[in-house]
Write a structure and sequence with these properties.
Shape: globular
Helix content: 25-40%
Largest sheet: 7 strands, mixed
Number of helices: 5
Low-confidence stretches: none
Number of strands: 7
Strand content: 25-35%
Distance between the termini: 27 Å
Structural class: alpha+beta
């Protein structure tokens, strides 16, 4: 299944198989000690994003994820996670994503994606280290 409106609907319907939404950048993959580079989006994360952040995000906003992961600013903040800051060029809206490795380090999942609040990216930068700048 692909990340498109049908794929999002498929996840929201409760299917347990996650879908691939992009690849982790090499610098972050090294930080997370990962062998895989595939980032997955699960039903639980999709529901979390749209439930917690649905007041300012629609399901179609999730279609920005591949571009955000490919072009965004990657920041390591913990041994098992990274944050990605991405500004949508058309609207100037900045988004933050969190990417986390499973405990066994076999898979990487997107755990959240939302519109950044003012100053939030600066706060993340204070706690983390840039591993790759915006492209």
């Amino acid at each position: 299944m692909a990340l498109d409106i049908e794929g999002i609907a498929w996840l929201l319907s409760g299917n347990s198989e996650p879908i691939s939404i992009g690849r982790i950048v090499n610098q972050a993959r090294t930080h997370l000690s990962q062998k895989t580079s595939v980032i997955l989006l699960s039903t639980d994360s999709t529901r979390h994003i749209l439930t917690k952040h649905g007041d300012h995000m629609e399901a179609s906003t999730l279609l920005l994820l591949p571009e955000a992961l490919r072009l965004g600013l990657w920041i390591t903040d913990r041994d098992y996670s990274c944050r990605v800051s991405f500004e949508e060029k058309e609207t100037g809206v900045r988004y933050l994503a969190a990417v986390k490795a499973t405990k066994d380090r076999r898979e990487i999942y997107l755990s959240t994606f939302h519109r950044a609040q003012k100053g939030q990216t600066k706060s993340v930068l204070k706690r983390g280290t840039i591993v790759r700048n915006h492209l």
